[in-house]
């Protein structure tokens, strides 16, 4: 802290006469609660607020190309003057941080620097408190040389929570191996606004699917037991963004959110509650506001609901600069001191960025605007997480192991498997796929066919060229004896990089044309960034437009394929050569023309580093696709929002088109065919112990082994408040061999049948429910009904 404090000097002198080495908080035999309380009792106000300060980590070391990394003078000043409690993005590398493959940290270097960071903090601070080192980690650790998985929208397309738990565990291993200890994820925002720039970071539009994926991420990161956190394989998870961030007005990132209280709790808070009940250790606020109250100042949600009613024991952290945003963006206060006081009193424990609390919070405490007891509560939460992680006993990484663990062969293979399971086949006219491996002439065309960073998504660090397999490379590896002609044809956005005649000529000379189009969240070093890290869309004087049309800050007003991509596709299809369209992108796009005119469409979202191999596996039949859409694909902008689980009444058609999406939630095709039969439902128990047990049989009636994603939807037939026309309440991805029949079982509990009534009481209302089971939200194969004989109160 910049302010001189006589009290600190007196306490410091007093404690220097004691043997701090024997202070109770250093005794691992004591309970965490005892250790935390002792440590807090020894801290000054400045030290406490320092623990709530999390500056930008990449500024804390220096490294020039070809040289060794070393601690920066800024870091030493932060420890001396501000007593900081953590760092965000110490190992982050990207155009915003200006850390490259040469100036960023590779795994072994990363372990050395994190060890040096911790050692300096412990040895050069009065109380020797280790740091929380917090990293972006939604689809892989955002650091140089790590494993890059598909982005969250692709992860959700797997409909396989167990697989995503394995993925999260691998990400945690890689983070911990390099010495960091906290992961940002899961993101549980509901994406019902495809114009929004961050759809790719979400698990889609459905609260239940999001909750199941979110819980898997939390368990993968943190382990199944609290003791797992002290291992070298797990990290603390940070859920974001709290709350209802994904439906901002007009699709503008961080803009106002207009939803009712019932919608908020029935849908948007559902996956949050599930993650909290699953033990998530940190929650991040959102930039947006809900009904006029900024999330970072929302005391009712942060304190009354999250901490008190739900019993959340972890800490709340602001999103980057969102405390300052109460002043500069939302304009609900007129001083930095009042912004700090409002956020702290609302329930924000930790300041991400390090500029929101600091002296402003000290001034607020001294002015009586914030009670020191509230500061103690915030510090108590952050210290508890540090003790649970075992940082006081073992804050260091094994430098020799980092390179062996990060991006090892097992992790690479898992990235390929997640990518394969995420690929969703939207169309396969006349069973063109899988392609025959005897093909001799193949044209590979398109803006994303050989663009490494375009297939990785936002929040990705620079990676060595040999670490990424593009679609072109995947096909070349798969078909080494074929004549493969590659023509880019056009860029995602820029129209000066267009050569459609060359693409047409390549298609004419080929037996099949594989056209890879879509979007990009690839940042470049020319892009300008806001203080929060979001990109700006101005190209200013650049001669060539960046491909980036998605990713944080890149909200859109249309959903068409940008640039001349559609023109390229139309020209290739016009040659008469069988055409396979592969889409690599971060949000739903308008696909009306392709759906009508292109025989094969595969949606790969952003498939990660192994995306090219995974796509080739599907195209040539080495993997049978079973991905399912986690979001609805609209036919026009005028339909938005077009999510499947809207409240009654049923939607009417428009003058120009019907109200249905082009492709519905849960949709996806396979090389196999499946038959559903023998649905049985049994109800047992009473009150909160009520169980609905469901079983059915699934038969693979084809000659191809495959996976089927069985989806269970319900409808409350009569309720005192509006309820959805249908809502997902169970699913399972099942592998079934050709000719085989399997029995699938589900269990519904009162929670899955509940709603919030007119008085905001959560209950299951007595009456009839419709049960619908099928292959998508629109492809229902089996139906029946069951009754709940009595109203069941879940919460008041």
UniProtKB/TrEMBL annotation:
Keywords: Glycosidase, Hydrolase, Signal. InterPro entries: Cellulose_Degrad_GH3, Fn3-like, GH, Glyco_hydro_3_AS, Glyco_hydro_3_C, Glyco_hydro_3_C_sf, Glyco_hydro_3_N, Glyco_hydro_3_N_sf. It comes from Zunongwangia profunda (strain DSM 18752 / CCTCC AB 206139 / SM-A87). Residues 708-777 form the Fibronectin type III-like domain. This is Beta-glucosidase. Residues 1-17 form the signal peptide. One of its GO terms (biological process) is glucan catabolic process. It comes from the Bacteria. PROSITE patterns: GLYCOSYL_HYDROL_F3. GO terms for molecular function: beta-glucosidase activity. Gene3D superfamilies: Glycoside hydrolase family 3 C-terminal domain, Glycoside hydrolase, family 3, N-terminal domain, Immunoglobulins. Pfam families: Fn3-like (PF14310), Glyco_hydro_3 (PF00933), Glyco_hydro_3_C (PF01915).
